[in-house]
Design goal:
heterodimer; A: 152 residues; mainly beta; Thiol Ester Dehydrase, Chain A; 5-stranded antiparallel β-sheet; elongated; B: 139 residues; alpha+beta; 5 strands
Chain lengths: 152, 139
């Protein structure tokens, strides 16, 4: 199971609007996301995408029928079926290898990295680690993210 | 625009100037919208109680976005964030000050390692984080 692809690769184009909407929702006014001239002055060919937006920008639109009672989409992001009550977002490790520009078309692919049973203060839990690779339209890997989630 | 920080001006142990965030409920809603995140714990207080939370929660990824903003702003437009990792330790709530702090832990070549964290109004660390940035040398 380890190394298994958790979903089909997802490809999407990240527009400057996507980048700006995300940045503003986070209260981030960095000119590198908004101002062509500022981006060029910093040595970039056009405006950038906030680095951690990569994790969210490629989610395909889903129908309302896919919503569960808690509001999350059914089968969201995981094909490992664990008989658990709750999955918590535990943290992330990112490597940013190349800048991501507004207009880039990015493909992401997530694989299962590890699955470990642990015992903690509030009982046993399963620590699941996934690795997502983000590749741009030129075939360059722009980022890698290892995500930890905790299932009880 | 934040000023450029140069490698020559940074020293190990140096503290990063703190950044304070205080999210309104509307901001949480906008972040849910910008990330297509329909999880009810971020906008439905009654439902949040069902999952054991006294109020709606600030998204983990929003706190992650703030951590990266804190580091990217510190580095300035000519700096580059090359790596960053964070852990979710505690819950963050809207309409409450969340403070981002950090310090330089090591410098290797043109890469600066930072220890960064987010704390709540009581000073409890909610998200510890490490980051590496590449800084330019003075022209």
């Amino acid at each position: 199971m380890i190394g298994q692809r958790l979903s089909e690769p997802v490809t999407g184009t990240i527009t400057s609007r996507d980048a700006q909407r995300f940045a503003l929702a986070a209260g981030d006014r960095n000119p590198l996301y908004f101002d062509e001239a500022a981006a060029r002055a910093a040595g970039y060919r056009t405006t950038l995408v906030p680095p951690v937006l990569l994790a969210w920008s490629l989610n395909p639109p889903r129908p309302l029928d896919d919503l569960r009672a808690d509001g999350l989409y059914r089968g969201e992001g995981k094909r490992v079926t664990l008989n658990v009550k709750r999955v918590m977002f535990g943290g992330e490790e990112w490597e940013f290898l190349e800048p991501v520009f507004a207009g880039d078309t990015i493909t992401s692919e997530t694989r299962l990295k590890s699955l470990e049973e642990k015992s903690g203060g509030s009982g046993p839990f399963v620590l699941q680690m996934t690795e997502t690779t983000y590749t741009n339209q030129d075939g360059a890997v722009v980022a890698r993210a290892v995500g930890r989630s905790i299932a009880r | 625009m934040t000023a450029q920080r140069y490698l020559e001006d940074v020293s190990v142990g140096e503290a990063m100037p703190a950044m304070v965030k205080n999210a309104s409920r509307a901001q949480l809603f906008l972040f849910s919208a910008a990330t297509n995140n329909p999880h009810r714990i971020h906008y439905d207080r009654e439902y949040a109680a069902v999952e054991g939370h006294p109020d709606v929660l600030v998204h983990g990824p929003l706190q992650g976005a703030w951590l990266s903003q804190f580091v990217v702003d510190w580095a300035g437009p000519g700096g580059r964030l090359v790596a960053m990792g964070w852990q979710n330790r505690g819950r963050a709530f809207p309409e409450s000050d969340l403070t981002f702090r950090g310090k330089v832990t090591s410098i290797s070549g043109d890469e600066v390692s930072l220890q960064v964290w987010e704390e709540d109004a009581a000073g409890t660390v909610l998200m510890p984080c490490t980051a590496r940035v590449r800084l330019p040398r003075r022209p």
